[in-house]
Specification:
It is a single chain. The chain is mainly beta. 5% of the residues lie in helices and 34% in strands. It has one helix and 14 strands; from the N terminus they run βββββαβββββββββ. The strands form four sheets. The chain has a five-stranded antiparallel beta sheet with strand order 3-7-6-5-4, with no helix packed on it. A four-stranded antiparallel beta sheet has the order 8-9-13-12, with no helix packed on it. Keywords: Membrane, Transmembrane, Transmembrane helix.
């Protein structure tokens, strides 16, 4: 493990994609054009959110590809053309949604199941390309065999941005107890200013609440929908179909950065 994995840095790029990646051979990642951001790593092992160029994942003026609906709770788990869900079509889940300064926004995640062989991997890579989803640093389809991939997309008004992507061997990417990691960006991806902070992270599937503490001392609690005391889906903790961990989203007050994110009871 390199020394920089134990260092914290601030995210300063709000309108570009950031790649959620793991160490060594556990994750396929590309070379990040800016310094890695290490935030809230697991207690046993630090993880990193690396910044990556957004060109391949940003689609302006089109939100149709991210339409979510059909199932109670706002989730769409997708319909695969393969016998196994998620192999040739992703299982899609709504992570969070809301309204900011009159603009509707939402986060969705597409999860692709691990291909069993090279042929299935080639078919999956082609299916990903149709949705403008490409695993970074995957030069050969065979690299996908036995690994799941996910893509998080952010829609804000008419702007659609890919903000997180990962390909991982699930057996080696396990979250338990209070394990968590996260990345921080801006709720409005079209501005370089801080605006309202948007925090997206992972936690164990057993987690029922993540508390985000902001630098002004205020807190935001991301709970599973069934345990939310108020309406609205801005700050939530969900269990996306096809993933071995939960995802949490916290939206904070304007012009305030995140101090910490903790799995709490």
């Amino acid at each position: 493990m390199s020394a920089d994995r134990e260092t914290r840095h601030d995210m300063t790029h709000h309108d570009i994609t950031f790649l959620l990646a793991e160490a060594a051979d556990e994750v396929e990642i590309g070379t990040a054009p800016t310094q890695a951001l290490i935030r809230g790593g697991r207690r046993r092992r630090a993880r990193r959110w690396a910044v990556a160029a957004a060109a391949a994942l940003v689609v302006a003026g089109s939100t149709g590809a991210l339409a979510v609906g059909g199932l109670p709770g706002g989730e769409d788990r997708g319909t695969s053309v393969s016998a196994r869900p998620g192999v040739l079509a992703p299982q899609r889940t709504l992570l969070a949604e809301g309204v900011d300064h009159g603009q509707e926004w939402r986060l969705t995640i597409d999860v692709w199941a691990p291909p069993r062989d090279d042929e299935e991997a080639r078919e999956q890579l082609a299916a990903m390309a149709e949705l403008d989803e490409k695993p970074l640093d995957v030069r050969e389809a065979s690299s996908l065999v036995g690994k799941l991939s996910f893509f998080v997309k952010h829609t804000y008004g008419e702007l659609q941005t890919g903000i997180s992507q990962m390909t991982v061997e699930t057996a080696r990417d396990v979250f338990t107890g209070t394990d968590r990691d996260w990345g921080e960006s801006s709720l409005n991806p079209s501005t370089d200013e801080l605006d309202r902070p948007l925090v997206i992270g992972r936690a164990a599937r057993t987690a029922e609440q993540v508390t985000c503490t902001w630098q002004d001392g205020s807190t935001t609690e991301a709970r599973t929908p069934s345990k939310q005391s108020t309406g609205g889906d801005e700050s939530v903790l969900r269990h996306p179909a096809g993933l071995p961990y939960a995802f949490f989203v916290c939206v904070g007050p304007e012009e305030v950065r995140l101090k910490s994110a903790e799995v709490t009871k």
